[in-house]
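Our consortium's second objective concerns turning raw sequence data into structural hypotheses that experimental partners can test. To show how far this objective has progressed, the report includes one record in full. It was chosen at random from the queue rather than selected for favorable results. The single chain below, 331 residues long, was entered without modification.
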Amino acid sequence: MSNSAERKPAYSDPLLILISALLLVALLATVYFAGSRPAHEFTKEPAVRPRPIITNDTRVVLVTQSVAPAGTHGVPAAGAAPAALPAETQPAVAAKPTPAAATGAAVTAAAPVVKATQDGKVKGKAVLIGTPPPEKAIGALKSDANCGKANTAAQVTTRNYVVDAGGGLANAVVYVKQGLAGSFPAPASKPLIDQAGCMYEPYIMAVMVGQKFDVRNSDPFLHNVNAAAKVNKGFNFAQANAGQVNEKVFDKPEQVRFACNVHPWMIAYVHVLENPFFVVTNNRGEFELPAGLPAGKYTVEVSHQKAGTQTFELDLAAGAGADVVVEFAVK
């Protein structure tokens, strides 16, 4: 008998049968345990929830959220007020300004009050309403060797608002602005603007067109007088000696600023007016127009360098007068 006839089939080998059985058992075990393990153990863990991004006005959260019905899960129902944003995201709200009247920052002047009198005088008072800012000390005057000796005042200040204890406002020019007909001769009086103690005196002066006035240096050292006129012919001259006087005149109405270029804090103003019915209020704010104003209807202006102007109407009967109170508000 041949060898091929005697060979046994491979699948009848006991060793191969054992190996095959073991592989089958291992496969079945793998399938079994895979089916019994929780599914989430094989899925990717969710990413960490992103931090919210804060803007100036709102908070944006980078997550997907389902929309709940109105009125549930923190979503306001229709018509309900929205919840307040966190403090750091609340829009800035400007504070309401405090009314100026409550802080005393602003005041209002009443209209001028005119009362008829029978004394034939047009007089009155200029009054400042409110507290003016403090005047500034002129330190340069005291530090100047000549001026410090010539001016013996403890302190020299600016003269923006000269006011007495009752509110009387000095240095306001009162004059008839409208209503006069014809021409009037210039007053015979000769006003004086002086340089004394390195200050111009007076600070405010008024003259009529064609009225002569004197400029004097009362200090024993050099000053110069610089009149910066715009419609009149200005001038700029030196006064080197104490007692030197120069006569001047303007022929057109305007306000002229006087200065000293040697001592730049020295400032004064000369008002040039068209008629003789004018006056400058005194240190108590009082004024009285020159006598001789004819009966008639007039507009009178009261002008202050800082407080501005006020006008009042004057209906003057023959021989009658008026008593006027004119208020100014601090500016």
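The partners drew two points from this record. The chain has a mean pLDDT of 81. The two ends are 142 Å apart (CA to CA). Both points have been shared with the crystallography group to help prioritize constructs.
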